[in-house]
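Researcher: Quick test of sequence recovery. Tokens follow.
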């Protein structure tokens, strides 16, 4: 069992992963959110595709438009990743004592990942609501309320909708995180295990540069694959969450399955997977960066080897 010092280091390494993920992935996320909010309406698509959406943002708002809502993401994702990776590591450690084997164990990974995902959904719901509401604003806001900053968005949401409003989309976020992170960590653990099995070689022994290059390469590939597994599995739930959180009507449904059914009737299967292109384009580099930052930080802090 890790001591309190190692526990604190796990959370620090998780925070580093979150910061890396936002830096690399936020522009892709902005495009995804705009497509989900504006391209799921019947007979009306504001953007032709992800490239058109990106060019519109750059022309109308500049590079800052792609990082709109990023400040709330940095705070939310740093805290979320800290809890996410730290909770997963400790839950896995507790369960792993029952299954002494070097190979990844589904009976360890799935409950650890689902538990961690369910926990962070409580943090992600309000931070993503603020982020999404900031992101869907263009120069001409389509919503009745204009938000000048993430803090202004949080305050106005609380004033108009109360605490319940700031947690709008919580059920969709819970489903997305619990299910998606089980797929994420299964993909990560198994791909990492097999890549290490095939690349472990005496030629790496004693050569720190080769070991670092190998570990970074494995981190990039396993992180990228895991991120794509997460989003391929859960994107429809994310579409529902975005619609629930950005719909200006306080009377709109908050049931993700009902919202998805409505989207399917209006825009078909393509509507349920709105934003798939930028989401997968973001998933590989953003999650690769997160995993490399997590593993490297853990190694620097002395809580894990290769």
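Model:
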């Amino acid at each position: 069992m890790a001591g309190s010092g190692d526990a604190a280091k796990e959370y620090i390494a998780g925070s580093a992963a979150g910061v890396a993920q936002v830096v690399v992935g936020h522009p892709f996320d902005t495009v995804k959110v705009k497509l989900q909010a504006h391209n799921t309406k019947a007979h009306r698509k504001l953007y032709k595709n992800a490239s058109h959406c990106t060019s519109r943002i750059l022309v109308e708002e500049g590079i800052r438009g792609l990082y709109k809502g990023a400040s709330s993401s940095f705070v939310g994702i740093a805290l979320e990743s800290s809890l996410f990776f730290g909770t997963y590591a400790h839950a896995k450690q507790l369960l792993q004592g029952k299954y002494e084997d070097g190979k990844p164990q589904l009976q360890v990974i799935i409950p650890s990942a689902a538990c961690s995902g369910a926990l962070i959904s409580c943090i992600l719901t309000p931070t993503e609501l603020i982020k999404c509401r900031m992101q869907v604003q263009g120069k001409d806001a389509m919503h009745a309320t204009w938000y000048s900053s993430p803090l202004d968005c949080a305050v106005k949401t609380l004033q108009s909708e109360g605490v319940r409003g700031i947690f709008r989309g919580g059920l969709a976020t819970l489903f997305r995180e619990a299910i998606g992170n089980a797929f994420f960590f299964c993909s990560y653990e198994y791909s990492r295990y097999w890549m290490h099995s095939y690349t472990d070689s005496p030629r790496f022994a004693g050569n720190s540069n080769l070991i670092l290059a190998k570990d970074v390469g494995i981190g990039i590939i396993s992180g990228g694959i895991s991120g794509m597994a997460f989003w391929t599995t859960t994107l429809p739930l994310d579409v529902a969450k975005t619609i629930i959180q950005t719909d200006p009507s306080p009377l709109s449904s908050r049931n993700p399955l009902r919202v998805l059914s409505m989207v399917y009737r209006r825009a078909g299967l393509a509507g349920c997977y709105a934003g798939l292109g930028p989401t997968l384009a973001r998933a590989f580099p953003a999650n690769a960066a997160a995993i490399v930052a997590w593993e490297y930080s853990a190694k620097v802090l002395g809580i894990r080897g290769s």
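The mean pLDDT is 84.
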